[in-house]
Amino acid sequence: MLLLCSNDFSNSTLIQDKSNTIDCKELQKILTRINFYMKKSQLESTYQSFGKIIGLDKSTRRKGLTFEQCCTFLHKIKRDTWQVKPVNQIWFDLFGRFMNNGTERQKVSAESFLRKFLLKQQKEKDVELEDVRQIFAHLNQLEIANVASSKALNSDSHMYIDKDHFEAYLMSAENDVFDPKKERFDQNCMTHSLSEYWINSSHNTYLTGDQLASQSSVEMYMYALYRGCRCVELDVWDGDVDTDLGLPIPIVYHGHTMTTKIPFSDIIDAVKVFLSFNPESYPIIFSLENHCSIPFQEVMAEQLLTILGDHLYTPSESTLKGALPSPESLRGMVVLKGRRPAGPINEEDNPEDGEIDDEESLLHTGEISTGNVDTAVSHGVAPELATMTLFHGTNFKNWDTSIEKPTYHMHSFSESTVRSLSKQTNSRQWIEYNRTHLTRTFPSGKRVDSSNYSPMVAWSNGCQMVALNFQTPDSPLRINDGRFRENGGCGYILKPCTLTTKDEFLKPVSSRLSIKVLNGSCLPKPKGQRRGECIDPYVKLSLYDEKEGKEVCTNYTTSFVVDNGFFPIWNKDKYTFDVCNAAVAILQLTVWDKDGLHSKDDFIASASIPISCMRQGIRSVRLFDSNNTRSGAFDFASLLIEVKIKQQMLEEI
């Protein structure tokens, strides 16, 4: 609250007279800025009443409020809303309205907080009284503006908290619905084979927009990497020849389109810079869609080796035998995915992940072609580049054949093929294959607008590299953000045991999920804008799940709250979801601004939480902007929800 007010209070556009005070007129602008509307007469009355309460005379009230007084005023507005605040109801329901001496409850003890709230309500485990005392000591150090300042608890700050500090805890990151143990990086789980992980992956990483005429940019690689991506794509083609040096210049762009071209070497330079600042990064996989002739491939190999140096992983023949290496063993390295043929290229080799819809090929021939073999045969593969490559793409015939291939052989499928393979009766063989080998999936070529497909079906079949268009901030990309929020955002998530073990009797765990949206806090305007009308927020709840090889999506929407993004209150309906595959399913909570009948609602913020990472109880939900960040206007954007989870057998659903 203090920081939010400070941001507005220091804005020179609001404080015209430089008096370091805010009068009623300027306060109206601040309220509009933080998305809370009050009629002018109502604000004037509340302002004058507040001034009298804190002892300001008429002259001082006319001059305006100080920063601290302004913070207290905003807190009073939030506290005195005509609706019953959920936190008040929670406070009295949990701890009782009256204390032992008969007075209305003003504080709660550490013992009561532990027993009634953390253990019973929140279903917390491994928490003790000393942990609560540390929480209380921290909470009581917070400066919370209050009109009627409660008695100081300094002498026993670790023994009690009042209602305001209880509310601060409810909305804090410590009480987030995303389990902090799951969000925290765990180095101990990074020693498995690469095939046992979901890997954060990007499609046509270089593009800034659509697939036909947008700009290509090196900056998109940095954007994707800092967003957590660890598998980037490079579509490499023959470019010009340097007139001075006579050397070929490999270029990257979306071939046969009007997208702009960038030098291959510029991308390698950018990744080297990233690794220089992030030397402990887990392996970055280059998915090379190689369309180059041999002379250009030789230059590619030289540039990779010269620029990346020791950061380039070059597998030996011995390391190609047995299981794939672990992320830990490849830390700080760049790994190549492309072509590593044992001999002359044949029709089983995947010369390029030719990104076409190959559904008809699967249905009519039983074999999936993922590239133009004739082109590859005419070009061949430069030995210098082949020996640097770890992952060798091959065409798919059947799972029995694929499983017998060396583990460094892998497949790439378009989203339509993913759906087709997942519906087949032998789809469990795909999961079997993905226990030891890798699969990369990518969007349909029909998605010229760079929209994304849902990653749920591919993930549920154990596919490691589910590549999405990172330039498009749509719902599937936000699902991806939620998935890879786990494990410190390192880009590698250990797959659930149902996808990594050979136990045929190990089935997905199902559950019943109940969500009640209580209220929001500090919801900004669309794109964090400073100006504009107050928002009318509502929350869309979407469960993305998988059952029998198909995606299952369940949606609910709250009512919208008029002119209030500061502290909107819903606190009405409970929404129930039947979760079929709890190890894969993800709940997405998205805040939208309700516009008129003829206007499209505006995205405000969102959070995606894997069910496997979700905590029960009354929890805060930290919201993220379209870039998956919490900064500026989104620093404090959050929801308060009530979560109940009941595990059940799949047959009950």
Average per-residue pLDDT, rounded, comes to 89
Helical fraction equals 25-40%
Shape: globular
- Show unreliable segments: 1-16, 350-377, 649-653
How far the N terminus sits from the C terminus, by CA atoms, comes to 43 Å
Count of beta strands: 21
Largest sheet: 11 strands, mixed
Residue share in β-strands: 15-25%
What is the structure about, briefly put?
With 653 residues, this protein is of the alpha/beta class. α1 (2-9) crosses α5 (67-79), α11 runs parallel beside α12 and α12 (264-277) runs parallel beside α13 (294-308).
Which features would summarize this protein structure in a list?
four-stranded antiparallel β-sheet, alpha/beta, 653 residues
Description:
By secondary structure, the protein is α/β, with parallel strands linked by helices. The protein contains 21 helices and 21 strands. The strands form 4 sheets. An 11-stranded mixed sheet has the order 6-5-4-7-8-9-10-11-12-3-13. Helix 7 (110-121) packs across helix 8, helix 11 (219-226) packs parallel to helix 12 and helix 12 packs parallel to helix 13. It is globular. The relative contact order is 0.10.
